[in-house]
Specification:
Layout (H helix, E strand, L loop, with lengths): L1 H6 L10 H42 L4
Length: about 60
């Protein structure tokens, strides 16, 4: 049981390194959120650019 808690960061107390592990995990989570936000924003802009291109091409199409 102690090994599972230590492996998953559940062992908090006077043990050396648990605070460092938790801080590293928080940084990792923050990087994940930033990366996900970047991809969502980039994807939204690509989709908006595609829709804009469709409107532009539709405007210049011969009718």
């Amino acid at each position: 049981m102690e090994q599972q808690e230590h492996a998953h960061g559940g062992g908090r107390g006077a043990e050396g390194g648990s605070a460092d592990a938790e801080a590293g995990y928080e940084r990792w989570k923050g990087k994940g959120v930033a990366l996900r936000a970047f991809f969502y924003i980039a994807g939204t802009h690509l989709f908006a650019g595609f829709v804009w291109l469709l409107f532009t091409l539709g405007e210049h199409a011969q009718k």
